[in-house]
Structures are given as structure tokens and as C-alpha cells.
Amino acid sequence: MFIEPIFPIPYSIFLLFVVGLFFGSFLNVLADRLSMGKTMGGRSMCDSCMHVLSWNDLIPIVSFLILRGKCRYCKAPFSIQYPLVELFTGVIFVITWYFSLHSILIPPDSYLLHSIHLGFAAVLIVMLLADFRYQIIPDEMQIALLILGVSKILYTSIVIGGVGLSVVSQTMGMHALYGLSVMAPLLLVFLITKGRGMGFGDVKLAFVMGLILGLLPGFLALYIGFVIGGIVGGILLLTKKGKRKTKIAFGPFLILGLYTMIFFENEIVLFVSKIYGF
């Protein structure tokens, strides 16, 4: 997505935001259909009257406002989640492109890598929605995230690093070991609790996190996820909106940790190194 060099910055931001709106509409449907085991074929329809929606019913944000949040045919209300996810995706696409473009670890002209990061954002949004709504992280998205992660490692090693194929194979092997190492604590929790304390989707996600980020950044992403999850859980208990046995999807917190480390790995690792002196 070669946006920055072609258009002035304000137009680039607007264009990317609009692209994000349309992607948000698609990712919303993708999260629901993958989680419920439905095929991606077939047109969108109203959940109440099952009437097939036309193109002018599916324009992100605009259609929701024009129809006042109701089905054109049966007047049943649409969930507010639809426009919110579209807006969220548009904002995340802009933020992701900005973070990627201004990362000290990424050359500004590495547009393929910036596009891979947008792919990360899209996949993570689907994972977040699926786990939040259904407490499921679809395997299809795990595979997509893995492919994007491997693509990033290959690009940074060959194109940016200029290393040969023999070194790349060693690098991939090391990253696979990093993934297994980061996955190990969550796998242990899963086995000890027999799946009650941790879903296996979280275990698989931890492996991909370690493979993408590396050993220390992978564990830091886990730590960020646990800290944020603990804070949210504590707030729910204090406000009496949750109980000790209330199930909370852990995937969204892992996703936030992964997203944070993708773009702020250097800053966070340096901060931790200063604290612990290594």
C-alpha cells in the first residue's frame, strides 16, 4: 500500500482511514463466520428477517446513519458494534501505518514491511473480536498471523539485513525455539488446569508471538498481557461486574501485548534493561 509517497499526508491519512472502514466491515463478518464455523461464501443479510442486504446497505458508517441503525426491510435494529468496529479499524490502520513509518527499527521506505504490519493489524482485530465475542481464536487467523510473522522475519533478514539463505534458515530455527519457549508457560497452565485456566488458542497465540518477536520481547509481550488482564480483572471485581469465577477472554490482552511490542520493542527492551541492569 504505497500511500505516503503518492498523496500529501492529510489525504494519505484520510484514504487509509476510509480503507480501514471498509476492511472493518469485512473483518467484522470474518470474525463472526469463522467463530461460528460458517463459510465465507454468500452475501450479507439481516439477522432478523434474513433479507439479503444490497450494496447501499453496506457502506461503512454511512448506511448505519442513513438507516438509523435499523434494517431497511424489517426495521430490526442493527448492533452498534458494526459501526464501532469499522471506526476502530479505520483508526487502527492509521495508527499502525504511522507507528510503522516512524519506527526506529524500520527504514521509512520499507513499504512492503509497512503493509505486513497492516496485515498484522487486520488479523489481530479479527482475533480480538472472535475471542471477545465467542472466546475462540480461529485457527485460520493463527495461520495467517504465522505467515505474516515468517514474511516479516524473511524480509528483515534478507532485504534489510542482507544475509544469505543459510543464515536465514538458522534464524528461522531460532525463532521457532523462541516461540516454543514463550508458549511453554501458557501450555503448562493449560495442562495443569485441564483447559479451565487457559484456552489452547491462547497457547498457540503465545507460540506465534514468540516466533514473531523473539525471546525477550515475546516474554515482555506476555507480561504486558498478564498485567493488563490483571488490571481489568481487578476493576471488574471492584465494580462487582465480575466474580472470581467469571470467565474473561485472555486473547485480547495477549494481542495488545503483541501489538505494543511490534512497534515499541526497542524502547521497552531498553527500559527494562536499565531497570534490571542487563
TrEMBL record:
Record-annotated Prepilin type IV endopeptidase peptidase domain positions: 120-233
GO (cellular component) term, any one: plasma membrane
GO molecular function, one term: aspartic-type endopeptidase activity
Compartments in which it is found: Cell membrane
Lineage: superkingdom: Bacteria
Family, as annotated: Belongs to the peptidase A24 family.
Protein name listed in UniProt: Prepilin peptidase
Source organism per UniProt: Candidatus Roizmanbacteria bacterium CG_4_9_14_0_2_um_filter_39_13
